[in-house]
Amino acid sequence: MKFKKKLPIGIENFSKLQSEDFYYVDKTMLIKDLLNNWAEVNLFTRPRRFGKTLNMSMLKSFFEINSDKKCFENTKILGEKSFCEKYMGKFPVVFVSLKSVSAENYTKACDMATQIINGEARRFQYLLESDCLTDYDKDAFRALLKPDMKEAVLCSSLRILTELLEKHHGQKVILLIDEYDVPLAKAFELGYYDAMTLFIRNMFEHVLKTNDSLKFAVLTGCMRISKESIFTGLNNLKVLSIADVQFDEYFGFTDSEVKDMLEYYELSDHYDEIKTWYDGYRFGNVDVYCPWDVINYCDELRINAQAQPKNYWSNTSSNEAVKCFVQQSDKGTVRREIEKLVAGECITKEIHQELTYQDMYASVENLWSVLFTTGYLTQLGKTDTNTFQLAIPNMEIRKIFTTQIMAYFKKNVSENGEALEKFCNALKDGNSERVEKGLNDYLKKTISIRDTFVKKQMKENFYHGILLGILGFQEKWSVSSNRESVDGYSDILIETENQEIGIIIEIKYAETGNMEAGCAEALKQIEEKRYEEQFVEEGIEHFLKYGIAFYKKQCKVVLANIPVQAKVK
Question: pLDDT tens across 374-412, in order?
């Protein structure tokens, strides 16, 4: 078999990716575009797992003095010979990532930040031998190596480092700060947000404002934090968000890039499912896929050709924004809007991209902005500068929504023990009318899945989940889902307390709205597949067969006309 390059799962170091022969989707023309569309301070905001860190590592590898040109072999940027001669390997580069500043309190967060500065400063220990630096300069540098660095020194550390590097090299410095907003997110979560905001603001003011040693700076993050909060007085800041056309193709994989990757790994047959699950994001004027998802799924397909798409991106976060959004569904308007989104429709909303963490969850209006900037919603168009048509981008994100919808539904079920008991008693008693009424009451209170985008089976799975969510709180019952029987898999099998009664439930979604026909089909399947044999084998003498059909927020329940007592064979 012909050798294929390794897929770079979790590889964010550009030099390593290239030197160890990983597959690389070429984004090197970002380098030239960055210089041609120059700004002194550039902030790129993109959702997580869209290649921000790898691009920052690429910038470092290109610009840094004595950089290894071999890293850029067979890349597009090397075709720009005059540009490379002018800029490649010509600058001192300071690169810090703040993604690991995640601590339980402010003091420990500062300790972590100190370690990061210590680590970066150690790369430049040659400054201690520099003939261009005074003893005072060298003392200032030594302070950056101390693990017990004072907070005042920490705030000015990047400014000091850039000044000393320029003095030694006689060349202005490029500064790269990756994941600038992670410390702020963690601080907000754990209650020291004000202190961390002040610290980050002071650090940025020192190094980014009126710093003559700076060639330019690039920052990345998920959120664009309000200028008043972090970037006070920083008039040289250029923000490049997911709504901006400039640099739109450099974060995420384009359709042609995905096709090329699939062709290389002989996986082109899986294009449609990859597009359905992981495409749909629109940055500026370009449609992109989530790179993390595409790479992970391709890697699994190489091992197992039958591997099914799954949520890779969602498993790297708590999905707190979606959770908070779904919890607002008690408000009628919000519930209808969520239902429209899950149905594959779009919602027109005004987006505020400049928020503080304190503002993010303060209102439903702000939540729309958070969902957009963090990648849970994407834009399909604009009506004016700040008003976007928003939609769920793909199947993966849709599943995040439905998962949170189900979790919220289960929480509500658990809080109403009386209604739960009535429903379960009706089910056990064979009272199909009361079962139907109870289910319809539940459906009225939850968010419906009326998505024309998904297959019938997926709709049935949703209602299947609703029933399991209700029954899961009946602790004395044994509830099985998709249990193998004689001739197939039954939807739900229930053994009541002490195996008194066995209950068989088969679920259908009535695409045309004919729920009576759906119930009849469900009961026919129970008979043909002989699902009751499970109970007969276990000595359960009494069993009930329910056919349940759903359509949007309605259901029909029919109980099979069978003898109450079934004789054991």
Answer: 999 999 988 888 899 999 999 999 989 988 888 888 888
Task: Report yes or no on 407 lying in a domain.
Answer: no
Same domain, yes or no: 262 and 350: no
* Same-domain status, 429 and 552: yes
Q: Which residue has tokens 């020192």?
A: 206
Map residue 548 onto helix, strand or coil: strand
Question: Is there a domain that residue 408 lies in?
Answer: no
Residue 377, SS3? Answer: coil
CA angle (463 as vertex; 520, 521 as ends), nearest 5: 10
* HEC-encoded secondary structure of 128-141: HHCCCCCHHHHHHH
CA–CA gap between residue 288 and residue 250 (Å, rounded): 10
User: Are residue 44 and residue 172 in the same domain, yes or no?
Assistant: yes
Closest CA to 341 of 315, 379, 373: 379
Torsion angle in degrees (nearest 10) through CA of 352, 353, 354, 355: 70
CA distance 142 to 161: 11
* 226 & 367 share domain: no
Q: Please tell me the predicted confidence (pLDDT) of residue 346.
A: 94
Same domain? 305 vs 439: no
Q: Are 83 and 30 in contact (CB under 8 A)?
A: no
Tell me the C-alpha distance between 194 and 359, whole Å.
Answer: 13
User: How much is the pLDDT for 454?
Assistant: 54
Do 420 and 555 reside in the same domain of the chain? yes
- The contacts of residue 296 (CB under 8 Å, 6+ apart) are 9, 312
Helix (H) or strand (E) holding 189: helix 182-190
Q: How many domains does the chain have?
A: 4
Q: What is the per-residue pLDDT for 8?
A: 95
Distance CA 226, CA 240 (A): 14
Q: 383 with 350: CB under 8 angstroms?
A: no
DSSP annotation of 95 reads E
9 inside domain: no
Residues 96 and 220: their CA atoms lie apart, in Å, by: 11
Instruction: Note the pLDDT tens digit of each residue in 333-383.
Output: 888 899 899 888 999 999 988 888 888 888 888 899 999 999 999 999 888
Structural domain of 212: 14-240
Token pair belonging to 302: 């190489």
- Using the structure block, give the residue that is written with the tokens 């958070």: 370
Classify residue 13 as exposed, middle or buried by CB count within 10 Å of its CB (0-12, 13-18, 19+).
middle
List, as one string, the DSSP characters of 284-339: TTEEEB-HHHHHHHHHHHHH-TTPPP--SSGGGS--HHHHHHHHGGGSHHHHHHHH
Rounded-to-integer distance, Cα 387 and Cα 445, Å: 30
Q: What is the mean pLDDT of the chain?
A: 90
Residue 356 lies in a domain: yes
